[in-house]
Amino acid sequence: MTDMPRYPHRHLLGIQGLHPPEINALLDLSERYAEQNQGADKKDSTLRGRTVINLFFENSTRTRTSFELAGKRLGADVINMQVATSSVAKGETLIDTAMTLNAMHVDVLAVRHPDSGAVQLLSEKTNCAVINGGDGRHEHPTQALLDALTIRRRKGRLEGLTVAICGDVLHSRVARSNIHLLNTMGARVRVVAPRTLLPSGVETLGVDVYHDITEGVRGCDIIMMLRLQQERMQGSYVPSVREFFRFFGLDYAKLANAAPDALIMHPGPMNRGVEIDSDLADDFERSVIREQVEMGVAVRMACLEALAANAESSAGGAA
Tens digits of per-residue pLDDT, 239-268? Predict the structure, then answer.
């Protein structure tokens, strides 16, 4: 796939700072893999002989599994490091972990970590390419890319669309990465949440802020719902989940205010009856939640290929 435009960076640590051609390079390559994954023969040998390690310091189902599947479909040797039973649990520092990985000559490292900036630190201390699988409240770039790919395949474009991101924006790295990507690609972004679930100064990210979901989704082309991340909450951010659903959960009545062909998205895991009505989540005409999961494998295949290719060029002395 050398005829494709190239993603020029050694790592993928976030969406912020990327330019439209760089994002489009990953989306175009992802599109090819999306088509390949729908065929009978889903595997190739693009990364044969390469080693990919998934190093997840937080639990994950969709992200870790799709990284594993992506690497295997590209022919790589894939290792899932179980942090709970690794030396990290015995007190090994992140720097020592990086030194261990360097000694193993890993090619690509996919990392999820509860602390913002931890993935950046690993990228500075390892010799391999690093993909951010989500770090604290910072970013989750491959989620934003798979969301963008899902939208582009359904709507044909990103530019000019109005997207509402609703729910627990305060604790969401997915929201932050999507805001950066959608703004960069020419979409108009709204955030819809109670004041307690919005970060301070969110307006500086280039979004329109709403505290009423009925008004927030009015005329929108895309509605992204976010779950309440109660594991990151200390104290009370909402009166109750029942009250949250009443005022901010998406159901058919609130959806009626959006564009007639508006699509519903959710990065998962879903809390049915909290941020989204269960029947609406399963409505194949309006919900693309399952398609997001499918596109996740394609996007992570593209990211693995792009970064492995850049690492090979760097090793060969290329600029």
Answer: 678 888 999 999 999 999 999 999 999 999
Q: In the numeric block, which tokens belong to residue 208?
A: 């329109």
Check: CB of residue 167 under 8 Å from CB of residue 226.
yes
The alpha-helical segments, DSSP class H, found in the chain are 20-37, 62-73, 94-103, 118-125, 141-155, 173-184, 213-216, 241-248, 252-255, 278-281, 289-315
Would you tell me how many other CB atoms lie within 10 Å of the CB of residue 229? 17
The interaxial angle of helices 173-184 and 141-155, nearest 10 deg, is 50
pTM summary value: 0.94
Distances (CA, A) of 102 to 2, 124, 166: 28, 12, 41
C-beta separation of 32 from 1 below 8 A = yes
Determine phi and psi for 164, rounding to 5 degrees: -105, 125
45 token code pair: 């040998």
Measured distance CA(134)–CA(178) in Å, rounded: 13
